């Protein structure tokens, strides 16, 4: 089971099967930053012995989802957060455990103001994936929306 340090991490671990499958560990989760780790697990290695690209994608997408819930959880009664698109770049060979750190690309208040105005706001979440020595092994941008409830 995933090691979590926050209610958001607990919720994601209990509702998203891939989070449990990959044993993602949730660290700091605030409206400004979310940190999620993927332990080194041979079952999820690629052909060069590092974490598989799909596992790294899931790690980064999970970190982006955690920050979205932290920043906009108070809006869930009137809008559903949905990922619109994602782009990932693999920069260096990842070996061992890796950590994804997500940050909102727009101020949350600006996004909520658009929602208040009856719009369907979109906003980027940028994620850096690092290995234990601090080297950035991947970068991802997930564009999210808050879809107003009908």
UniProtKB/TrEMBL annotation:
Q: Which SUPFAM superfamilies match?
A: Thioesterase/thiol ester dehydrase-isomerase
Q: What is this protein called?
A: Acyl-coenzyme A thioesterase PaaI-like protein
């Amino acid at each position: 089971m995933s090691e979590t340090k926050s209610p958001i991490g607990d919720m994601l671990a209990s509702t998203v099967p891939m989070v449990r499958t990959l044993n993602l560990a949730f660290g700091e989760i605030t409206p400004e930053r979310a940190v999620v780790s993927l332990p080194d697990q041979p079952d999820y290695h690629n052909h060069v012995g590092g974490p598989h690209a799909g596992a790294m994608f899931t790690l980064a997408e999970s970190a982006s989802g955690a920050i979205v819930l932290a920043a906009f959880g108070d809006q869930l009664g009137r809008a559903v957060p949905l990922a619109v698109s994602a782009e990932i770049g693999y920069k260096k060979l990842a070996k061992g455990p890796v950590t994804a750190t997500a940050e909102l690309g727009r101020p949350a208040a600006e996004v909520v103001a658009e929602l208040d105005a009856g719009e369907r706001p979109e906003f980027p979440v940028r994620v850096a994936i690092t290995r234990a020595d601090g080297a950035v092994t991947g970068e991802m941008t997930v564009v999210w929306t808050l879809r107003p409830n009908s």
